[in-house]
Amino acid sequence: MPIYNAPTKDIQFVLHDLLKVSEQDIPGFEDLDRDFTNAVVEEAGKVASEVLHPLNVVGDTEGCVLENGVVRTPTGFKEAFEQMKEGGWTAMDCDPEYGGQGLPYVMHTAAQEPFVSANMAFNMYQGLTHGAYSAIHAHGSEEQKQKYLPKMVTCEWTGTMNLTEPHCGTDLGLMRTKAVPQGDGSYKISGQKIFISAGEHDMAENIIHLVLAKIQGGPEGIKGVSLFIVPKFLVNDDGSLGQRNGVAVGKIEEKMGIHGNSTCVMNYDEAVGYLVGEEHKGMRAMFTMMNEARLGVGLQGYAQAESAYQNAVAYAVDRLQGRDVTGAKNPDGPADPLIVHPDIRRNLMDQKSFVEGARAFTFWGAYLIDRAHKNNDADADGLISLMTPVIKGFLTDKGFEYATAAQQVYGGHGYIEEWGMSQYARDARIAMIYEGANGIQALDLVGRKLAQDGGKHVMAFFEMIKTFIKENEGNEALKKDFLDPLKAASKDLQAAGMYFMQNGMKNPNNALSGSYDFMHMMGHVCLGLMWARMAKAAMEALEAGASDTAFYETKIATGRYYMARQLPATSMHLARINTGADTVMALEAANF
Amino acid sequence: MPIYNAPTKDIQFVLHDLLKVSEQDIPGFEDLDRDFTNAVVEEAGKVASEVLHPLNVVGDTEGCVLENGVVRTPTGFKEAFEQMKEGGWTAMDCDPEYGGQGLPYVMHTAAQEPFVSANMAFNMYQGLTHGAYSAIHAHGSEEQKQKYLPKMVTCEWTGTMNLTEPHCGTDLGLMRTKAVPQGDGSYKISGQKIFISAGEHDMAENIIHLVLAKIQGGPEGIKGVSLFIVPKFLVNDDGSLGQRNGVAVGKIEEKMGIHGNSTCVMNYDEAVGYLVGEEHKGMRAMFTMMNEARLGVGLQGYAQAESAYQNAVAYAVDRLQGRDVTGAKNPDGPADPLIVHPDIRRNLMDQKSFVEGARAFTFWGAYLIDRAHKNNDADADGLISLMTPVIKGFLTDKGFEYATAAQQVYGGHGYIEEWGMSQYARDARIAMIYEGANGIQALDLVGRKLAQDGGKHVMAFFEMIKTFIKENEGNEALKKDFLDPLKAASKDLQAAGMYFMQNGMKNPNNALSGSYDFMHMMGHVCLGLMWARMAKAAMEALEAGASDTAFYETKIATGRYYMARQLPATSMHLARINTGADTVMALEAANF
């Protein structure tokens, strides 16, 4: 049986030592003192490890079952979902106007991590609802908000996002689902949507589907897509549930992982739908909440790696196998624990230094979202827009890689389902795919975000690194181990950007062939920046006489590892990028 | 439903254009002319795609079922296994003395690839039998060989390898299974073995278990381990089957993949066993066949990637999504096929250039095994001994990575089991673990093989690269795209070796902390060498007026991709290695 313990201290370190949340001039941040955030994270961690984590394997083993149009979630999910509702965990950052607690998004993110680590499939029911809430909150009419949001904030009603169709995923312009105006302000929606997470289940009274569809007679392609609310049960004016709508689950998909979440084919057969926002502006409505949704998926990536890492460490400390080549560490035992072996440590340090860097990167992203929204800060908005594909793409690629690496520590036991390590890898795999496959993230980054607002945001990012290095150059403890590697990696990244500028003009494929490498490069530079900052914060804490010296020293040592052993990847990515499109585009399609 | 077509032309290219097998001065190689090998590979490919491939998904879905001590293999496996026996596919490289066909191992390897690509789990029943055959053939008495081998060559009886116990995998010195001499030359074996592939099933009359156990009163640890034959049914002197032996399957493991193979817990309860070779020399007996077994696992790695790649290409050509940024390629259709997009090509070229390089590397390894065995060539033996951990470790890591990359091309469909891409990733995952987890391969390479025979073999490898570069320096077509990158990568590898020599003496952890990176580096250099040679061979074929110019030109273009885009990884690995053990060993175990 796998273990999970919420890394409260690490989360607190990022919130306070790194981001200094309570000192930020952002509405609501003044309440985020150490005691308050500690209480929230501790309690979230308790729910995660005691309620959600024990159901993780149950969800994987039982999966969701469709019988007579009704989806049965795994044993215990319903009760756990009730606890989440009662604990107010579904309402944390929601608008108080509709029953939310109005906490900053960064606080929501900090509390989400343990939930996602403990049971990713379970947490998606709430996560999708949050996404649907955000879309209605941003684009719905006041009437729609009053009607749907209070129940969605409490998760009495859950939500879904319906984009994909069998023949179109990324390219939503090919969409066929139709919306026919009924003259009374409503529409009849018909078509089939696939890969609908939490599409149907038995944990809520009602399900509010958000559906992209084309209004007949509208523009061709992506410009003719509108967003609709399609409730499973129509909602009467007094808020009571009315008749069953024309939407039904067609089947549940058999997936590689996240078995606890019901991934549905949804059939819409003249279902009543209500337009959200303007006609034909559906994509814009979806895009406004994309930063949050993609940040949430990036979090899934590293949160699964965190869980897998905790178990790998426990196994490495417990399992006796072989002897330390420099002398027995457990001379009275039959063998030394795995953790004495350098290659086991290499593997564990790869995981640890990634996960902690990823957490800092994600929380920083959440903080930028708060700054953008609550302070109407356009620079923060531009910066998080730039970072979003990196958070999503890099953290999910690496999250899967390290969940798999953790599995490797177990040897043969890692491959046996009973030990639970396979599930972390299988669950983490989806995060690389959904919410825009990672190749699309790379395209978004290089094809769109780099040049956004005249390249202003990427320049600001480089400036931020330069300033940090400059301000701390006199700090000998930081310089060699942190600032110098950061400077080198940042130079590689700038050189790649330069290559794109010089060669992408004459042939965009020269840039796009290197987009994936650029995304990874930038991920490394971001984590390098986070580590340099965290090292500085840890050093300051030690200088200030912090009592828990081991914690802060470990933080610095882990950062040193990242800078020494992970950051050099930027030179490889640059070398790949610099070869351009020639070898990538050389073959005729028939010769693959 | 996934597809599979044996890459006969690519296999023939490696056998003849690269390895020039029929011109080699090795007994049996004179028969390997193009027509003969083509007929064999074509036929193997036919069996693979028509018989084995359709059962791949069946095996994954149904798995093996244990009922009343009997294991039922998936529907169709038994009939397919009969076809394999009847076709003589189980006997190819076996000793004619015992009913084998006596073909070179490289031919066996070439025929195995399609079988493994088409159905890895199925092919393991034969693969394990081949391993047990080799152990008895190398170390058994003449009486044992006469008694067991003829039936194992035909797979009327299958074989297993019993090493792992619940508390010991890598560190077999901790073994508890006991062998008690009975005074009549036989032993009574008692203990529990786990992870026994093909441990029990319904496709053979008898199962010959090879079991490692400790003879009571023998030396402690690994030096007291002996190897025993423990047949499921005892074999009478006339060859007929006698009484059921005291060995029984305890349970079948639920695994991440290879569901079609029954992975058993085997309980030995005073089972009759017969010593193979000498007392306490069991490990040596196992080690002699390790090169072959590990090469076979390396083949599994790239063979799964090959299957996954074929499907990814088919999907990328078929699926319409988005438009080529340089202008529509399918202007009359609603969108262009995925394969127009640079990042999809980047992904596919990564896969293709790896798989084809890996095939060359593996076949070259098989050729070295033939040269070592059939010519008693100690240099070839030393070289394959050096290469074995690289073939196993690098090809299985990358095989899994690229099976996963192929899955990514499918977007959401890649995560749905129905499409078959998840299975390739899940099946490929085990190859990184069994037959010595890849961390152990890295340890074997750096801790043992580099220094073997005074470092003679690694020096010979470097010399081989140097000579090839020197001999072809005047070849302008090769120089820039192939020889220069190969030289740079080889220099990186030598620099890493130098670092180990200079720093490993004072602290072996300086070398062992870099062992995994070194294994990957060396894998890249080996594939770089293979590609340089293949490019040369392809150029020669074109110069000689080969009619299939597209095939050879594609080969060269694919090689160019590998040299430009994959080989630069060596510089990253070197940078990691050069940081030594400090950051790897910094933390106390309690601080992970």
Number of strands of chain A: 11
Instruction: Please state roughly what percent of the residues of chain A sit in beta strands, choosing from under 5%, 5-15%, 15-25%, 25-35%, 35-45% or over 45%.
Output: 5-15%
- Strand adjacency order, main sheet of chain A: 4-5-11-7-6
Oligomer: homodimer
The CATH level-2 architecture of the domain at 285-445 in chain A is identified as: Up-down Bundle
Radius of gyration from the alpha-carbon trace of chain A, in angstroms: 24 Å
Q: Could you tell me which chain pair has the largest interface and how many residues each side has?
A: A-B, 96 and 96 residues
- Helix content, binned percent of chain A: 55-70%
CATH superfamily of the domain at 285-445 in chain A: Butyryl-CoA Dehydrogenase, subunit A, domain 3
Q: What is the 3D shape of chain A? A: globular
Kindly report the CATH topology of the domain at 285-445 in chain A: Butyryl-CoA Dehydrogenase, subunit A, domain 3
Major sheet attributes of chain A: 5 strands, mixed, barrel
The helix tally of chain A amounts to 20
Unreliable sequence segments of chain A: none
CATH level 1 class label of the domain at 285-445 in chain A: Mainly Alpha
Secondary-structure-based class of chain A equals: alpha+beta
Mean pLDDT of chain A: 97
- Give the N-terminus to C-terminus distance of chain A in angstroms: 44 Å
